[in-house]
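User: Can you help me understand a structure? I only have the sequence.
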Amino acid sequence: MKILLFGEFSGLHNNLKDGLMHLGHQVKIAAGMDGYKQISNDLNLDSNLNGLVRMIDVRLKPFLKLHDMKGFDILQSINPFFPNAKYFPRKLFYLLLKRLNENFFILAAGSDAYYWKYGPRRLSYGPFKDTLKYDIKSTNYYMENRKAFLYNKKLIDLSHGIIPVMYDYEINYKENKKLLNTIPLPINLKKIDYKENKIGKKLVIFHGLSRYGFKGTRYVESAFNELSKTYPNDLELIIDGKLPIKEYLKIMQKADIVIDQVNSHSSGMNALYALAMGKVVLGGSEPIGFKSLGISSSPVINIKPSKESIIESIIKLIEEKSSIPQKGLSGRKFVEDVHCHIKVAAKYLKTWKASI
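Assistant: Let's start by predicting it. Here is the structure, written out as tokens:
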């Protein structure tokens, strides 16, 4: 099949592409480079211009590239709101894009209007207030309004189905007739070197800096401030990020423990990269989310959005320092079993074929 993956966040579609190509399919990614992350694509929708001209260019480019995005058997958008550019005529664009391709699917991955409408009520905790306060720096978000929801609903109605990547997004579409199976995030393990997690004098703990509010970085900062005073000789604590993905992964490789997103019930791509390397990961790992992925447990150590939860988990790891190499190996085996890009790609193919 010929497959167009439209949009990219954190390497999800790049890893899926690798799996689909391994299974013999032709795949193209049309996307930006996700800002500073500089994630690769086949059809670049970013702009090299500046100022007002750039604003116009990023809105026109998807339309000007439509001739390169036609004739595919499967079209999959990473999110109903990609491209996330204010005043971009998304509805018109997707209507045109859908007409040029055979079968249209959408991922429930990242923020959309269903997530913002239902998430605050259906999730026991989430990033909503912190996102408004620290990332958007406003008392409201456009995805909360009725217009955004009606657009989101219309796009789902036009599609063959919506595929969640984790429980946090699945729960918000539970009544929607277009909801399909949740499929785990993919990762190409051939591109991530596993190394035994050998512990030095200090445990090196790393938290990647990206969306400060959404990821719950303030809780990590607070925990690190306290831990640095209590365990100055036992811990090296690092918060860094907003780097190209290759440089970011080099920093991660130096850590023993990685703290993923705090405001989530489930693990994101960041956690998978770390697990694949053999790191111990703290992050979203609520049992309620296991069923969505068809698993009974996860090596990710579950933490709540609180300073106390993070401190408690890290102290336990200090006390059980000798178990860290084995925990790292278990994490690698977990992603090999659940998140292998080839296995995940096969699940997408099965879901697509069953829905068209």
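Now, to help you interpret it: DSSP finds 15 helices and eleven strands in the chain. The CA atoms of residues 18 and 341 lie 7 Å apart. Let me know which part you'd like to focus on.
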